[in-house]
Amino acid sequence: MDSKAKALQAQGRPVISYAAGEPDFVTPEYIVAAASDAVLDPKNYRYTPAAGLPELREAIAEKTLRDSGWNVTASQVIVTNGGKQAVYQSFATLLDPGDEVILPTPYWTTYPEAIKLAGGVPVEVFAGADQGYLVTVAQLEAARTPRTKVLLFVSPSNPTGAVYSPEETRAIGEWALEHGIWVLSDEIYQNLTYDGVVATSIVAAVPELAEQTILVNGVAKTYAMTGWRVGWMVGPLDAIAGASNLQSHLSSNVSNISQRAAIAALTGPQDAVAEMRAAFDARRKTIVAELNKIDGIVCPTPTGAFYVYPDVSGLLGRTWGGVTPTTSLELADLILDQAEVAVVPGEAFGPSGYVRMSYALGDAPLLEGVQRLQRLFA
How far apart are CA 224 and CA 220, in angstroms? Predict the structure, then answer.
């Protein structure tokens, strides 16, 4: 949908896109300045350790203690080419052919593909808007089999923005610990929460899980650095050693310039992060309020990330502008054609009947796009 929207925009059509999963802000100036300095330093022109610059691995270890409550050493950290490589590499390290991964649904579209590429089998566990998009221990237990190897835990979530409470996180962590299940916890949005909500790391909730958990994270979302491609894995030494061996053959080190920028991001002033979060918060409130004015849309209020995930099943089977959509994919096409608004259909993240809308776009286009939907579905 994002590609379609950009193609139409290139033709001069006034398409407003809620499809892209990246902040609309520029990378903070002090981070760019660090990268600019790094470009001029010849020490960055050579190969460096495949697992990452020692200074960055140390900064990541400090961030992990600060934000995730896990006291790790730099040797437990691998720097990757974005969070996506960290996700893929974690599954490749943990899974043998036929191993099952419990995948709470809705999910980010890369997760099941990375599982399958590693020879694993994704086992979807769905929680809808009526559950706040949060799976329960009972659901996880019902999905567990002798082949269950890993639980994917994501809080805050892409695509829903849902955040598990400390109590829910602890219960899920204790369940995984009891059954000897590895946890892959994607914490890429952990610093983007609202309403006083804190994204509790599963290792902070259940410290005994440390020997069977890998955390993945990165600078992309928090610091508006999606194009810099810096992510990381944190985990027990044996798993990290295996992943490091894989990375040495797969990609070797991440760009040294990007790594120097990431060091500045993690160790420098965090004022810009707070400003971006405040802007996202205001947009979140606007889009939820305006979407819920549309008959047929139910939009829960997310407490993390920068997405809403409204239930649009009330719009399906009804005729709009001569078209009667029966799936959210068909509805997304209708919205793009008739309102010139791009949203991502639920089929990308699990069952039909939902759409994902990013509110990481300017205040004016954000409001204008929803008002177009209000007119279309009046």
Answer: 5
Strand order in the sheet with 307-308: 307-308, 355-358, 344-345
Q: 128 and 151 in contact (C-beta within 8 Å)? A: no
Give residue-wise pLDDT tens across range 125-165.
Answer: 999 999 999 999 999 999 999 999 999 999 999 999 999 99
Are residue 282 and residue 245 in the same domain, yes or no?
A: no
For residue 7, what is the domain's CATH number?
A: 3.90.1150.10
What's the rounded Cα separation, in Å, for the pair 276 and 290?
21
pLDDT at 66: 97
207 shares a domain with 240: yes
Same-domain status, 181 and 328: no
118 and 183 assigned to the same domain: yes
Same domain, 8 and 142: no
Q: Per residue in 324-377, pLDDT tens?
A: 999 999 999 999 999 999 999 999 999 999 999 999 999 999 999 999 999 999
